[in-house]
Amino acid sequence: MNVVRLDEYRKSRLPARPQAASAPDAEHYFCMRCDSDQFRLYAGGEVHCAKCGSLMQNLGIGETNR
Q1: Does residue 32 surpass a pLDDT of 80?
Q2: What backbone torsions phi and psi does residue 39 show, to the nearest 5 degrees?
Q3: Residue 59 CB neighbour total at 10 angstroms
Q4: Which residue ranges make up each domain of the chain?
Q5: Residue 46, CB half-sphere, CA atoms under 13 Å: how many?
Q6: pLDDT tens digits for 5-29?
Q7: From CA 25, how far away is CA 29, in angstroms rounded?
Q8: What is the mean pLDDT of residues 59-63?
Q9: How far apart are CA 66 and CA 64, in angstroms?
Q10: What is the pLDDT of residue 64?
Q11: In the predicted structure, residue 51 carries a pLDDT above the cut 80
Q12: How far apart are CA 60 and CA 65, in angstroms?
């Protein structure tokens, strides 16, 4: 049986691609399951991770009044 400490594993991994420069106050969302920052938006307003398919319950898309 292998035991992997996720905090150490994530620190030791190299990023898959260079991080894009963003504004320091910009919000950055990522999947808590696989650390991906790519998402798919479905017609019903659900957001899923593009890499592992996990439902992002803390991200929602709805109508706004501007």
Answers
A1: yes
A2: -130, 160
A3: 15
A4: 27-60
A5: 8
A6: 766 766 666 666 666 666 666 677 8
A7: 13
A8: 67
A9: 6
A10: 64
A11: yes
A12: 15
pTM of the model: 0.52
Q: Which residues of 13-51 are buried (b: 16+ CB within 10 A; e: fewer)?
A: eeeeeeeeeeeeeeeeeebeeeeeeebeeeeeeebbbeb
Q: How many residues does the chain have?
A: 66
Which tokens go with 15? 């990023």
Which residues lie closer than 8 Å to 38 by C-beta, 6 or more apart? 49, 50, 51
Residue 55 Rama label (left phi>0; alpha psi -120 to 50; beta): beta
